[in-house]
């Protein structure tokens, strides 16, 4: 955190789609990318 700047805000933009292939536990799933290109720092979010 930078003093005087507050908490950093993360911005996300949709860049692909994946299909869940299995649920391993409440916080971890296995998925297959069906559209887009995966990058190391990508995050996943469920579709609304």
Describe this structure in words.
This protein is mainly beta. Helices cover 0% and strands 40% of the residues. The protein has a two-stranded antiparallel ribbon with strand order 1-2. The protein is extended and about 45 Å long. The mean pLDDT is 78.
Feature tags:
48 residues, mainly beta, two-stranded antiparallel sheet, 2 strands, extended
Topology at a glance:
Layout: E1 16-25, E2 28-36
Antiparallel strand pairs: 1-2
- Uncertain runs: none
Number of helices: 0
Would you tell me the overall average pLDDT?
78
Q: Radius of gyration, rounded?
A: 15 Å
Largest sheet composition: 2 strands, antiparallel
Structural class: mainly beta
Global outline:
extended
The proportion of residues forming helix, as a percent range, comes to under 10%
First and last CA, distance: 31 Å
What's the count of strands?
2
Strand order, sheet with most strands: 1-2
Task: Describe the structure concisely for a colleague.
The protein is 0% helix and 40% strand. It is mainly β. It has a two-stranded antiparallel sheet with strand order 1-2.
């Amino acid at each position: 955190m930078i003093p005087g700047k507050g908490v950093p805000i993360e911005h996300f933009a949709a860049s692909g789609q994946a299909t869940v292939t299995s649920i391993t536990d409440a916080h971890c799933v296995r998925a297959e990318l069906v559209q887009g290109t995966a990058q190391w720092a990508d995050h996943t979010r469920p579709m609304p």
